[in-house]
Amino acid sequence: MSDRLPPLTALRAFEAAARHLSFARAASELNVTPAALSFQIKSLEQALGAPVFRRLNRAVELTEAGRTLAPGTSEGFETLNRAWRAAHRLQDDATLTVTAGPAFTAKWLAPRLYEFAQAHPEIELRFSASLRMMDFERDEIDVAIRFGTSQNSDLYTLPLAQEWVTPVMTPNLAKQVKEPADLLRMPLIFDDSINFLEPPCDWAAWFRAVGMNHAPQHGPRFSQADHAIDAALAGVGVVLGRRALIIKDLHEGRLIAPFRTAVAPDARFRFVCPKGAETRPPVQAFRNWILSEIAKTAHLADAMTVILASDVAP
User: Where does the chain have alpha helices with state H?
Assistant: First the structure.
């Protein structure tokens, strides 16, 4: 018996029939006649020297040889499909698919899309707002914006601006604030999305940074950073806002940061894509646009006195 693989068409016919357990449905999927599909499977069985299906009256079932062969053929064709889609995507300079967390998508990307569309009308942006770890090939993603401390040496990774947190509020609430102690009589909003950071970058850390031993526990809590910021924009209270997610609101006056003290975690947002893809025109254009947008509000960040969370850890 030869180890030589049978024709790809025979393997493809087997894979579809094994998945559907129906020659008719497999033939319909592959756009061939049931007779043609049956012929391909018979040629595969002849090459293997054993049947892969047991033919019943109105159905088929896999033999032991078929059950052994099915998983590998399914994985093989899925790998081929992913590779083909990835290679095809390299030729597409008109579409760029980006994944980012829901908060970054809502507070950083979405409000700036008009500027990107004006600067690059030739590129159609598509977004997947998710915190799930994506596979660039399987999920057909071109660029990921991710927040954290870890880096993957197998990917192209560009750290973006240093991240920090500082209290922000509406202009009306800001009129009541002259010094950090004034915050003690205001509703404090909690953004629980960064509770995973070590050392903590929370209200207690910020109060330690300004010389106060205060660790508030009570107030509205949100699992999504953009929801916490929306609450502050609605005048609910004061939120410890994250630089990337509040900087546009600060720049345009919807939020006020009355103090210049900010606390920085080790984590930051990163621009990530497969190595080599960073030179593709749409990826390069998107990366350069992000950097130029960050530069527009750099003066606000430069005005902050940034203290590392590790320097104020309890």
Answer: 8-20, 23-30, 34-48, 64-90, 102-104, 113-119, 171-174, 203-209, 225-233, 243-251, 281-296, 298-302
H/E stretch holding 55: strand 53-55
What tens-digit pLDDT sequence spans the chain (314 residues)? 567 888 999 999 999 999 999 999 999 999 999 999 999 999 999 999 999 999 988 889 999 999 999 999 999 998 888 778 777 666 666 889 999 999 999 999 999 999 999 999 999 999 999 888 878 877 889 999 999 887 788 899 999 999 999 999 999 999 999 999 999 999 999 999 999 999 999 999 999 999 999 999 999 999 999 999 999 999 999 999 999 999 999 999 999 999 999 999 999 999 999 999 999 999 999 999 999 999 999 999 999 999 999 999 98
User: 172-193 burial by CB neighbour count: b if 16+ within 10 A, else e?
Assistant: ebbeebeebeebeeebbbbbeb
What is the C-alpha to C-alpha distance for residues 65 and 119, in angstroms, rounded to an integer? 58
Which residues are within 8 A (CB) of 293 and not within 5 positions of it... i.e. 6 or more apart? 112, 115
What's the alpha-carbon Rg for the chain, to the nearest Å? 28
Q: What is the pTM of this model?
A: 0.73
Nearest C-alpha neighbor of 240 from the set 302, 173, 164, 299: 164
- Domains defined for the chain, CATH in brackets: 8-90 (1.10.10.10), 95-162+268-296 (3.40.190.10), 165-265+299-311 (3.40.190.10)
Cβ neighbours for 301, distance < 8 A, ≥ 6 positions apart: 161, 162, 164, 243, 247
User: What span, in angstroms and rounded, lies between the C-alpha atoms of 98 and 141?
Assistant: 6
